[in-house]
Amino acid sequence: MKLPLLFLFIGLTFAAVWTDVQGRKMEATFYKLDGSTVLFQKGNQTVRFPLEKLSKEDQKRIKALTTVESPYEGLPKEGKHFLTKAKLIYPHNFDQPFPKSVSAGKFEVSIIQEDKTQNEYIYETDHFRFISDVKLKKIVVREFAKLFEATFAYMQALPFGFPYPAKESASEGKYRTNLFGTRQAYLESGRGIPEWSGGVYYPSTDQIHLPLTSLGVKKGSTGYFLDRNRD
Description:
By secondary structure, the chain is of the alpha+beta class. The protein is about 15% helix and about 30% strand. The chain is built from four helices and 15 strands. It has helices at about 5-10, 55-65, 140-155, 185, and strands at about 15-20, 25-35, 35-40, 45-50, 80-85, 90, 110-115, 120-125, 130, 165, 175-180, 200, 205-210, 215-220, 225. The chain has a six-stranded mixed beta sheet with strand order 7-8-9-11-13-12. The chain has a four-stranded antiparallel beta sheet with strand order 1-2-3-4. Strands 5-6-10 form a three-stranded antiparallel beta sheet, with no helix packed on it.
């Protein structure tokens, strides 16, 4: 099975419901802002929409998605990391070289909950909280979690100062990742999920939605397993 290291950040899309000034709603994926025109992806079509025709709230959302502000303004410069008011940690690594390689390092997979009646199975690693609607073997979670932890390590090693959640307790500071045993369950798990997508990130709730098939996990006669023969 071959999966790119940065699949989490390249393959994920931003799905949301957008409202215009007349109160009409549209489920679509934000693509980019081209001058005063917003480009959305809806199904297989690209929809162009004037920014000024969106509701004031959605205009703010678009500007927030396309505006980069310095996280260091008004904050102390000393120290390798520091905490912002939004409880995000920004690595102070702008003067570091680009990483040649990264490793997921050593991490443990913890089984937090396995509730068959609610179809909710929760597993955690150092930086991710996986919530699945099907039971998974610990060794399977560990295998695909390597991708997540290695991606996290790579993003933090890049000299761009990418923020990450502050870890104030054992259960906090983790990216919530919702996993689904079937593609249909994935498509029905949130609004505006494109049928062609392999995963969705919701910035408003800071959650990831993924079908297990995107991770190379398949259902077998004795449970779910990692398909190592997948291209």
